[in-house]
Design a protein that fits this description.
CATH class: Mainly Beta
CATH topology: Jelly Rolls
Number of strands: 20
GO biological process, one term: carbohydrate metabolic process
Number of helices: 1
Largest sheet: 11 strands, mixed
Number of domains: 1
Family: Belongs to the glycosyl hydrolase 16 family.
Keywords: Signal
Protein name: Beta-glucanase (GH16 family)
Strand content: 35-45%
Distance between the termini: 22 Å
Helix content: under 10%
Radius of gyration: 17 Å
Bound molecules: calcium ion
Order of helices and strands: HEEEEEEEEEEEEEEEEEEEE
CATH architecture: Sandwich
Pfam family, one: Glyco_hydro_16
Structural class: mainly beta
Length: about 270
């Protein structure tokens, strides 16, 4: 979800259903990372596992600028006491370095780097669709400043075109493909989003939802492309893009005036 150029292309790709049930996820013995988000209500995500990224200047070119400031300290990301992490994007102004931003939210990234290939599985749900909210569950290959050379895999992101149609995406130097989940899903209900990938010249990424394989894509990145897991809810950017009368995508709408959008995560694990 880092930049939007490829996402627009991906949004136009038709989904194809393929009801092939894949084997169960990796055995627990193979996990290199796991968080079930057990803890008392109000606790922050474990600092041993997650880094809370802060700051306000997110997004690519000026037209893609996101609207939120990411906070830490439990303001926008905390456990609910029922085994879940809840990230909330709010219509709430904050001023940083003399600039006022209209929204706060949170973005956490795993401290564990998943090695050269592996898998990630996240069980999550979101609150109902609100214009401007851009919840996402994704991986970002390192070093990320070289994006997209080391790859990005969006297990799920939602927000493009002002609709409530979550999508999966792959981003490399040579592939920006993606699509809505086949048959449509209700993302306000619990779903298990999964991607499993290999790296190197023949690398591929396989996306699944609820244990059902949906797509395999080329994922050609350097063999050594360690990746972080990222969970966040952005505001603006791709989630407020609207097509202009001239066909370009630089026209924007305002997010919902009372935006209060959540990404709730039951667990995140990797192997
Ligand atoms: Ca849990």
């Amino acid at each position: 979800m880092r930049f939007t150029t490829f996402l627009r292309t991906a949004a136009a790709v038709a989904a194809t259903a393929a009801s092939v049930v894949v084997p169960a996820s990796a055995a627990q013995a193979d996990w290199v990372f796991n968080d079930d988000f057990t803890g008392v209500a109000g606790a922050q995500p474990a600092a041993a596992r997650w880094t809370q990224q802060t700051g306000c200047q997110w997004g690519g070119r000026p037209a893609d600028k996101e609207r939120q400031c990411y906070t830490d300290g439990g303001h926008n990301a905390k456990l609910d006491g029922n085994g879940n992490l809840v990230i909330t994007a709010r219509d709430e102004s904050t001023t940083v370095d003399g600039v006022t931003y209209d929204y706060t939210s949170a973005r956490v990234e795993s401290n564990t780097l998943i090695g050269s290939g592996g898998g990630v599985e996240v069980r999550a749900r979101m609150s109902g669709f609100e214009v401007g909210a851009w919840p996402a569950i994704w991986t970002l290959g390192q070093p990320e400043d070289a994006w997209p050379q080391y790859g990005e895999l969006d297990l799920m992101e939602n927000g493009g075109g002002g609709s409530w149609v979550p999508q999966w995406h792959v981003h490399t130097a040579t592939n920006g493909n993606g699509a809505a989940f086949p048959g449509g899903i209700d993302p306000s209900q619990w779903h298990i989003y999964e991607v499993e990938w290999t790296t190197g010249p023949g690398g591929t990424a396989k996306f699944s939802i609820d244990g059902v394989f949906i797509a395999e894509e080329p994922f050609v990145v350097p063999a050594n492309s360690p990746a972080k897991i990222i969970l966040n809810v952005a505001v603006g950017g791709w989630a407020t893009d609207r097509q202009c009368p001239d066909g370009s995508w630089d026209c924007k709408v305002e997010p919902d005036a009372d935006l209060n959008s959540t990404l709730t995560v039951d667990y995140a694990r990797a192997w």
